[in-house]
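User: I'm writing a short report section on ligand binding and want a predicted complex to refer to. Could you take this sequence and manganese (II) ion and write out the structure as tokens? A short remark afterwards would be nice.
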Amino acid sequence: MANYVIEPPEIVSLPIQGSDAAFPVRRVYCIGRNYAAHAIEMGHDPDREPPFFFQKNPNNLDTSGDFPYPPHSSDVHHEAEMFVALKTGGTNIAVEDALDHVYGYGLSLDMTRRDLQGEMKKMGRPWEIGKAFERSAPCGPIHPVSAVGHPSEGHLKLTVNGETRQEGDLNQMIWKVPEMISYLSAYFELAPGDVIQSGTPAGVGPVVKGDVMVMSVDGLGSLTVNVT
Ligand code: MN
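Assistant: Sure. The structure tokens for the complex follow:
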């Protein structure tokens, strides 16, 4: 082992549904505006422009079931998103081969400091301060492809305190999972352990301390997250 001058950072991992094994995470990519109704609610044209991506940090993923309200924001939004976990990677992956690289799927939230993201957008600056903050990606376990296949449709829903806020279907994605993987692999070298948040349907909105968010997708169970 290398003679590290400090203790090496912990490897972030996600639990596997129905197993005590774990999935080690390398990178987290997130696609923007991937459901037409959400693009429209954010003031954008839902036409099929090239996709765009940003990143969160692996250690922003959090499976504790709690989301501590972050500092320096008074407008923190939920974005309910299916995530995709890769078991293999590569570059220039063809759309028709892309699903062969998927280990499994799960439920996640792309929590967003919308006010800070908005300021950054206005100034043409990067979004990390709005997106890649501590514990900004609450998530559930990975459901392996061996158990759930490759879900390309299924009702996606998020409630806050029992009230429905977000609803959509996986089949409404503008860029489908194989297309996302293929596109990303043209710009980045994908590798085992990479995770992709696949975008959110319409209905994003603010949460406050004490709220309980429950996300579900047909076939992938549900995820409950308390805003603390
Ligand atoms: Mn998002």
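A remark for your report: The CA atoms of residues 3 and 105 lie 36 Å apart. Helices lie at 36-41, 114-123, 128-131, 145-148, 177-187.
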